[in-house]
Amino acid sequence: MLAKVFSFGLLGLEAYPIEIEVDVSSGLPAVTLVGLADAAIRESKERVKSAIKNSGLQWPAERITVNLAPSDTKKEGACFDLAIALGILAATEQLNAEKLKDYYILGELSLDGSLRPVRGILPISLAIAKFCKNIILPLQNAKEAAIVTDIFVWPMKTLRQTVEFLHNQQTVKPFKLDLESLFAQHTHYQIDFSEVKGQYLAKRAIEVAVSGVHNVLMIGPPGSGKTMLAKRIPTVMPDLTLEESLEVTKIHSAVGTLPIKEGIIGRRPFRNPHHTISDVALVGGGSIPVPGEISLAHQGVLFLDELPEFHRDCLEALRQPLEDGCIRVCRITKSFLFPASFMLVCAMNPCPCGFLTDPRKACRCNTTKIANYLSKISGPLLDRIDIHIEIPAVKYKELTDTHDAEPSVVIKARVEKAAAIQRERFKEEGIFYNAQMNTKLIKKYCILNEEAKELLKLAMTELGLSARAYDKILKVSRTIADLAGSETIQAEHISEAVQYRSLDRLCL
């Protein structure tokens, strides 16, 4: 007998419907899986067989053929186990096949018949809303699926419970979720800027960087607090909107990094990959491309510690996403577009030994070593980093100070005020913040008074700043002016922005 079950697969961030056909016919007992299935799907026949037997149901001693259509699209993962099992039960008349046609079914089976959670449920649920409105899935995935309010979510714990539900559908109610309250539960941070001792200039530079979403590079000796500062940047960024949260959750769901208990990501992502990461893991890819770290950092922070230690290919691969806010991964049959709009935060030592700028310890590096170390960061990548700040070693007096530093909530209030000014300014321009301005918009919105013009001219001439630093100084000074509530860019704004180009002077 032939039975059909409906499910969904995932390619990158795109979900597509799959029709699972199960044919049970006379012949030697065997299971054949066709339809470009990967190893995880091919192994599902053993999981399904044990799950059916251990659920008190009958495994047919006949020939079983399972086809995953469309047959020309490669499929991966263990999310089709439950659908295949129900198809076999329907084909052997242990289940009414007519009751399956109104549901999309997903779930991985354990050998005892219990259901395990699967990845990619949110993008699949968004796609299902355009088709059938019912989805059967593991209980652990219920919150994530119920974010999409246009569908009916039917969470199950075991294969046996699923069969009983399909026999008597009136005994269970669909899972409902209060999305607003769930979203509000996950907007709090465990860390705060009040815990950072000293580093007042660094905190100010970070406030400016976050206000205009400028990429930032921190340079300082080991133990000066670069990582500590970076980890607290999300705490002063404006809260995610619900729309942004769903966009971020969709990416993490597809990759499988979404915490099962949370169901939604309500905080700005903070990604901190190790410097041994490959370029594919950083930007995304694979035989069936999946998003990389830059996409997982979407709407948040990508922190690259020990920047010169990263492979050159990895760093150069960042150039296009930093410009476009997305990454396109191309394969022979299809290209995949992954969002990658993030704030890049980097940290590095001023020299190989790390103590070039530390007044308390002598640097052991010669000028050649220092030049080679700094040259690991290419000019084109440096050109995309707006703010360079030096992080000095923290003094003992600052470490032992018992007064609390300025908390994140106070800094965040100033950041949100500046962000609101930018949104209003650029509402007709198609951008949202100062770092996105092109040459035309810089000319239009970065208005300098005469004193500021003279100071900028002096800085470019006397400090030997490159032409590429010119636009960056104007963008950053525009953000500083927004924080000050000034319509025009004043001399003091230019002066502060020039101080944030320290690496340009170091490289001369």
In words, what does this structure look like?
The strands form six sheets. The protein has a five-stranded parallel β-sheet. The chain has a four-stranded mixed β-sheet with strand order 1-2-4-3. With 508 residues, it is α/β, with parallel strands linked by helices. The chain is elongated and about 90 Å long. The chain is built from 23 helices and 18 strands. The mean pLDDT is 91. It folds into three domains: 2-177, Ribosomal Protein S5, domain 2 (2-Layer Sandwich); 193-423, P-loop containing nucleotide triphosphate hydrolases (Rossmann fold, 3-Layer(aba) Sandwich), CATH 3.40.50; 437-508, Helicase, Ruva Protein, domain 3 (Orthogonal Bundle). Strand 15 (326-330) and strand 16 (335-339) form a beta hairpin.
Set down the secondary structure blueprint:
Blueprint: E1 2-11, E2 14-25, E3 30-34, H1 39-42, H2 44-54, E4 63-69, H3 81-91, E5 104-105, E6 108-109, E7 115-116, H4 121-128, E8 134-138, H5 142-146, E9 152-156, H6 159-167, H7 179-185, H8 200-212, E10 216-219, H9 226-231, H10 242-255, E11 270-271, H11 279-283, E12 284-285, E13 290-291, H12 293-296, E14 301-304, H13 312-317, H14 319-324, E15 326-330, E16 335-339, E17 343-348, H15 367-374, H16 379-382, E18 387-390, H17 396-399, H18 408-425, H19 439-445, H20 450-462, H21 468-484, H22 491-499, H23 502-506
Parallel strand pairs: 3-4, 5-8, 8-9, 10-17, 10-18, 11-14, 14-17
Antiparallel strand pairs: 1-2, 2-4, 6-7, 12-13, 15-16
